[in-house]
Specification:
With 234 residues, the protein is an all-alpha fold. Helix content is 80%, strand content 0%. The protein has eight helices and no strands. The longest helix has 65 residues. The protein is elongated.
C-alpha cells in the first residue's frame, strides 16, 4: 500500500464526518434563513469543513507518485474543492460522501450497490432541494423546503410536473445537475437489474445443461450395456 493509499484510507471517515457536518450547517443556514450571529456560526462551520477538503486534495497531490497524471485524472476532485467557494455550489462538497461509499462498494455485492444508489438518490434529492431553496427564495416558486423536495424528487425521476421550477440561473444549474444525476442513477439501477437477470438465466442454463449431460451419460451407459448383452448372446 502506497503512502497516498494509506492517507486516503485514513481520511475516509474524517471526510465523511466533515461532509455530514457541512450538511447540518448548510441545512441550518438555508432552512432557518439565518442572519446575525447564527449566520456567522453557520458560515464558520461551512468554511472549516471546506478547509478539510482542501487539505485532503493538497496532500493527495503531494503524495501522488505521478503528480501531473494524478492531477489530470482528478479534475472533478479539484472542482469539488474550488467551486464550493461559490455559495450556490457548496453542495458539491457532499460528493465526498458518495466517493467514500463508492470506494467501499466498488467490488462489492450487487445488493450493496443498490443500497448505494438508493442512498445517493435520497441525499441528492435533499441537497438539491436545499440548493434550489437557497437560490430561489424570494425569486421563484420554490419558497419552502417542502416545495424544494417535491421539485427535486420529480426532477430526479425525470417526471417533471412543472408546477414548481427554478427561474434563477443558479437554480437552473442545480436542475441540470439533478437531471444528469437522475439519468445516471437510473442507469445504475437498470444495469444492476439487468446483471441480476442475466446471472439468473445463466445459472438456470447451467443447471439445465448439467441435467442434460447427466441424461446423456445415463443413456450412453445403458446403450453400452445393451451392446454388451447383445454381443454376449451372439
Amino acid at each position: 500500500m502506497t503512502r497516498q493509499q494509506r492517507w486516503q484510507q485514513f481520511m475516509d471517515w474524517p471526510l465523511t464526518a466533515a461532509a455530514l457536518i457541512f450538511l447540518i450547517a448548510y441545512s441550518w443556514e438555508v432552512i432557518g434563513d439565518l442572519d446575525g450571529p447564527r449566520a456567522v456560526v453557520a458560515e464558520s462551520i461551512i468554511w472549516a469543513t471546506w478547509a478539510v477538503f482542501v487539505l485532503d486534495y493538497i496532500v493527495n497531490l503531494a503524495l501522488a507518485t505521478r503528480r501531473w497524471h494524478w492531477f489530470t485524472r482528478h479534475i472533478f476532485d479539484l472542482l469539488v474543492v474550488v467551486l464550493p467557494m461559490l455559495r450556490p455550489l457548496r453542495m458539491l462538497r457532499l460528493v465526498t460522501i458518495l466517493a467514500v461509499l463508492q470506494r467501499s462498494t466498488g467490488g462489492a455485492f450487487r445488493g450493496r450497490v443498490v443500497v448505494y444508489a438508493a442512498g445517493a438518490s435520497l441525499l441528492l434529492v435533499y441537497v438539491a432541494a436545499l440548493a434550489a431553496l437557497d437560490a430561489e427564495r424570494d425569486h421563484g416558486s420554490i419558497q419552502t423546503l417542502g416545495q424544494g423536495l417535491w421539485w427535486a424528487f420529480v426532477t430526479i425521476t425525470t417526471v417533471g410536473y412543472g408546477d414548481v421550477y427554478p427561474v434563477t440561473p443558479t437554480g437552473q444549474l442545480v436542475a441540470v445537475g439533478v437531471m444528469v444525476a437522475g439519468i445516471a442513477l437510473i442507469g445504475v439501477v437498470t444495469a444492476t437489474l439487468a446483471s441480476w437477470i442475466v446471472e439468473k438465466v445463466s445459472v438456470q442454463q447451467e443447471v439445465e445443461e448439467a441435467i442434460t449431460r447427466a441424461h446423456v451419460e445415463t443413456l450412453t451407459e445403458e446403450i453400452r450395456k445393451l451392446r454388451e448383452l447383445v454381443s454376449s448372446r451372439l
